[in-house]
């Protein structure tokens, strides 16, 4: 099992409001990986994303390191997301410079051959296998709701002027709903987490190429960020890759 994560400020933004981290527990064949994309002004956005990332991992660390079998990972992830939301929301209420801050959160929890994805917002998770990228998450965004209602196509959504308007985020309300998706991963397959700084400038078909020509998560993350930079990188760009 190999994991790597990388973030880049991009070519336009003055601050990087993305945050990413991972932890491996190789003896138990477990791992956690997180990507957050903050919002709410330069300082507030970066505070929200880093705080959410750290808090979420901290909630999971005792479970990851437990010698016992984990019986309800979905419940554990939802609880971690709720506690993370509470912490970020409380800080936004108590500190004037943090008012209105929030962040997306997409996280991988791997336990043996099983994986679980927690998602709030429009950062994404993909399962890469057999030369294909399967989107595991569903964006909590205005355009995704329009696509779901049939009033917008996926192609129209990519260039819609409100494509960055999200409908769910960590820290913007006192409670939040977290989606959890699960599946299995085979040896040699990959999970990719990324912020919209990547998906807004490249398609999944395009970035699958980097998984085919690179064997290491570090090289894949660097290649994907380079792709975004070549496309102008108008937003912060973050990638995190796990190889089973």
Q: Into which percent range does the helicity of residues fall?
A: 25-40%
Supply the number of structural domains. Answer: 1
What portion of residues belong to β-strands?
Answer: 25-35%
Count the beta strands.
11
Q: By helix and strand content, what is the structural category?
A: alpha+beta
Topology:
Blueprint lengths: L1 E7 L9 E8 L4 E10 L2 H23 L8 H22 L7 E2 L1 E7 L2 E7 L3 E6 L2 E4 L6 H8 L4 H6 L19 E6 L5 E5 L1 H4 L4 H10 L3 H14 L6 E7 L1
Helix pairs in contact: 1-2
Question: How would you describe this protein?
Answer:
The chain is α+β, with helices and mostly antiparallel strands. It has a single domain (about 1-244), classed as Phosphatase 2c, domain 1, CATH 3.60.40.10. It is built from 7 helices and 11 strands. It has helices at about 40-65, 75-95, 140-150, 155-160, 195-200, 205-215, 215-230, and strands at about 1-10, 20-25, 30-40, 100-105, 105-110, 115-120, 125-130, 130-135, 180-185, 190-195, 235-244. The strands form 2 sheets. Strands 2, 3, 4, 5, 6 and 9 form a 6-stranded antiparallel β-sheet that branches. Strands 1-11-10-7-8 form a 5-stranded antiparallel β-sheet. It is globular. The mean pLDDT is about 90.
